[in-house]
Amino acid sequence: MSPPRGPLAQLRRGHEQLVLGLLRKHGPLSRGELGKRCGLSRTTLYDILASLVASGTVVAAGQQDAPRGRGRPAETLTLNPDAGQAIGIDFARRGLHVAAVNVAHEVVGAVSEPHDAGLPWEQRVELAERLVGALTGTGSGALRLGALDAIGVGVVGPVTGPDASEAGDDAPAANGAAPHPVQLLLRERFGVPVLLDNNTRLAALGEAIWGAAAGEQDVLYLRLSHGVGGGLVIGGSLHRGTQGLSGEFGHITVEPGGARCECGGTGCLETVASIRAVLDAYRAAGGRAGDVPQLAEAARAGDASVLTLLEDVGTKIGAVLAAVCNTIGPGVIVIGGELTETGDALMRPIERALHEHVMPVSRHLLSLRRATLGEVAGALGGIALVLHESPLLSRYPAGPDLAKDPTMTPSRHP
């Protein structure tokens, strides 16, 4: 069941988020202090607080000392860190990344572990369960699985459908597609809704909320990893496109008649700018590098063959970015992924090609930035799907009404 979407329900939700935001920012506050900061009428504020206290989202933190002769101390209110938690999991091609936040939007843990690219889904989910377990503990900030509300998941490749489908049972999703295997496996283990989207688009969401593009309204995100893809934020909202197929920048042709791509095309950017493509090209030129850190070390050492290669790769990337920029007009471009570890050897040719090919009138309006969240960006984006509180998700299908989900089954965890 979806949350109510009427004007009054949206207004109330906005008031709730205003109050919760003040408690996140300032910590424990009295009702009087909240009233001064939020600008709501006393009646409205007290009604909102009563609802938040009744739901357990807000709890009493203690009492403030009142001035002598001023009566009883004022009660202060604070967010309840045990009221609800969210987990984000990024099932990347060759690794698993898990992050968790509490109701105060505080990251209570993050952990990653590499694995073989061909690892079956059952084993990936077992690994995910173990990593989630590694975040549990007895400290005040530890992840408590009993307070888990939902899991947001990123997977490699297109995620088709009108929304980020939620696996409630074995029935097909609303668009006629069966739930992804990872949704069913995670639901079986944790007993909570599982929201799914492309992991690179979730990384774009993470960078736009917590990372390099925080606060920006129009953002182009590109990740250079084992695959090449990205995401778009347009007018302050994450753009998914028809059937969720937005952001496939890796499949723009840069070399007509070039190498065959996994998508079925030829000469795609991914055949030139993915980790495997770059390493293969470097070794074909006589270089010796088994991974990206070794490639980056060769670049820092001034290896002419790697510098020439990265110049060519960066030029092609910059040309693609310029074409997209000329179409949608973003203010910020964020580049992420392991290949950015090569630093200026890659970033400078990207910037030069971007400057050369983008429309002159918009050159000074563009900001090119390195991603800041690292490998947990996709997991944090998955958490954003669960929370669904960022304005970036205003046009994105909402998650399930977790409190009223009729398909919920008891969690295996205490």
UniProtKB/TrEMBL annotation:
Q: Which domain of life is it from?
A: Bacteria
Please list the coiled coil stretches: none
Which Pfam families does the UniProt entry name for this protein?
ROK
Q: Which InterPro entries does UniProt cross-reference here? A: ATPase_NBD, ROK, ROK_cs, WH-like_DNA-bd_sf, WH_DNA-bd_sf
PROSITE patterns named among the record's database cross-references: ROK
* PANTHER family named in the record: BIFUNCTIONAL UDP-N-ACETYLGLUCOSAMINE 2-EPIMERASE_N-ACETYLMANNOSAMINE KINASE, ROK (REPRESSOR, ORF, KINASE) FAMILY
The entry's family comment says: Belongs to the ROK (NagC/XylR) family.
Protein's recorded name? ROK family transcriptional regulator
The record lists the organism as Nonomuraea terrae
